[in-house]
Design a protein that fits this description.
Shape: elongated
Subunit structure: Part of the 50S ribosomal subunit.
GO biological process, one term: translation
Largest sheet: 3 strands, parallel
Order of helices and strands: HHHEHEHEEEHE
GO cellular component, one term: cytosolic large ribosomal subunit
GO molecular function: rRNA binding; structural constituent of ribosome
InterPro entries: Ribosomal_uL15 (IPR030878), Ribosomal_uL15/eL18 (IPR021131), Ribosomal_uL15/eL18_sf (IPR036227), Ribosomal_uL15_bac-type (IPR005749), Ribosomal_uL15_CS (IPR001196)
Number of helices: 6
CATH topology of one domain: Ribosomal Protein L15, Chain: K, domain 2
Amino acid sequence: MAEQEENTILQMHDLRPAPGAKKKRTRVGRGEGSKGKTAGRGAKGTLKRYQVRPGFEGGQLPLYMRLPKLRGFKSPFKKEFQVVNVATLAELFPKGGEITVEDLVKAGAVRDGYPVKVLGDGEITAAFTLKGVKASKTAQAKIEAAGGTISE
């Protein structure tokens, strides 16, 4: 007997949905027995009688009209540089030498985690070797005139 039960093959007509998987839909508004009368919408008011469009604020000036129109956009790919002037470099490192972004962060000239750009405001006499920074043309000219170099 046990062998016969083991050998039975599952047929398409034997398949049934799992218990509780098939649930009848609630028919609202069909008498007060179940979900009748207000049909689950509560009592009185605009939303109970008909739908209003998304964003409708009951006659108040809506948010999309309160905001300014067409004012450009902010690029998510914009690079924000920390700027340091040549004069600041001369103050922080009067002897010159090799300067990296880490040195500038330690000196408190820039914040960590941002690219650095050197601008040409001020004068220098010491020779700087800047590594890992960008520089404006005026800054580059002043640094090279003092005998320094810049490498990105």
